[in-house]
Structure formats: structure tokens, C-alpha cells
């Protein structure tokens, strides 16, 4: 079969950098980032995040070939920042957003578990019973809880 081995989709060969930067000399403040072993998932989310930045004039990505596991992200910025700076800012913002989503999910999981235990005859006087799982509401969300929940 002509298809590459499965492990080649995510294993970075020795001596190959994860991210390469190529400056576009035809356009000012433009660079093409070659990211190895990634696909449309990362390319789409990064370009969408870059589109929200007012300092970015253009951002787009492509996957050169279905059997090549890499993406190319083209970024053109204003004079206020560099393409590398804009991409770093987008990645930082994306990481913060994903961390927030993860924390909210974990807090809701704790809340659902507590509600299920209360409905199944759990002790209503138990610590945390009937209270919100969000730290902003006064509860420490880092408490050790078994998160095995069936939905």
C-alpha cells in the first residue's frame, strides 16, 4: 500500500524542527510557518485566532498534501508587530482560553457528581453538598474528587 505507516503521522523524525519560519520577501511583514505533524485542527483554530487580532492583515493555512503531515500558516501583519509575535500572541491566547474551558469543565463535572450523589441518597450535610463548584462562588475547585461520572 502507498499510505505511510500510522506512526509517521505524529512522530517527528530526528533532526527535524517542529516549527520552521520562512520570511516572504515579496510582501512586507509576512512569514510562512511550517508546522510538522499537525493538521487542519491546529491550522484552523490558529488562523481563526489570528483573524481576531487587529494587527494581523492576513492569515491563512493549507495542508500541502494529504499524505504530508504538516501545515503551512501564512501571516501578514501591520508594522506594529511581527508575524512571529502575532502567532505567539495567538498561541498564548488560545492556551489561556483552553485552560479556562478545561477548568470550567472540571468544575461542572464535580458539580454533576455531587448532584448525582445527593439524588442517590448521599449525605446532604457532607462538605460541599448543595454548594457551587466554582471557586468564584467560594469553593476550592482543586479538592480531590473521583471524576468517574456516567452521563
TrEMBL record:
Gene Ontology MF annotations: DNA binding; DNA-directed RNA polymerase activity; protein dimerization activity
Keywords: DNA-directed RNA polymerase, Nucleus, Transcription
Cited InterPro entries: RBP11, RBP11-like, RBP11-like_dimer, RNA_pol_Rpb11_13-16kDa_CS, Rpo11-like
Stretch forming the signal peptide: none
GO cellular component, one term: RNA polymerase II, core complex
Domain DNA-directed RNA polymerase RBP11-like dimerisation: 31-102
Domain of life assignment: Eukaryota
GO biological process, one term: transcription by RNA polymerase II
Entry's localization field: Nucleus
Pfam families, alphabetized: RNA_pol_L_2
SUPFAM superfamilies named in the record: RBP11-like subunits of RNA polymerase
Major localization listed first in the record, in broad terms: nucleus
Family according to the record: Belongs to the archaeal Rpo11/eukaryotic RPB11/RPC19 RNA polymerase subunit family.
HAMAP family, per the entry: RNApol_arch_Rpo11
Protein name: DNA-directed RNA polymerase II core subunit
Name of encoding gene: RPB11_2
Amino acid at each position: 500500500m502507498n499510505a505511510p505507516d500510522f506512526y509517521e503521522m505524529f512522530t517527528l523524525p530526528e533532526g527535524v524542527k517542529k516549527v520552521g519560519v520562512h520570511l516572504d520577501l515579496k510582501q512586507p511583514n509576512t512569514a510562512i510557518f511550517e508546522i510538522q505533524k499537525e493538521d487542519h485542527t491546529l491550522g484552523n483554530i490558529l488562523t481563526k485566532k489570528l483573524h481576531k487580532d487587529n494587527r494581523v492583515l492576513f492569515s491563512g493555512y493549507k495542508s500541502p498534501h494529504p499524505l504530508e503531515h504538516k501545515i503551512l500558516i501564512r501571516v501578514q501583519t501591520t508594522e506594529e508587530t511581527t508575524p512571529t509575535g502575532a502567532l505567539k500572541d495567538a498561541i498564548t491566547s488560545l492556551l489561556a482560553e483552553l485552560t479556562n474551558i478545561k477548568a470550567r469543565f472540571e468544575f461542572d463535572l464535580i458539580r454533576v457528581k455531587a448532584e448525582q450523589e445527593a439524588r442517590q441518597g448521599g449525605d446532604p450535610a457532607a462538605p460541599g453538598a448543595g454548594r457551587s463548584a466554582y471557586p468564584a462562588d467560594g469553593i476550592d475547585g482543586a479538592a480531590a474528587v473521583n471524576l468517574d461520572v456516567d452521563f
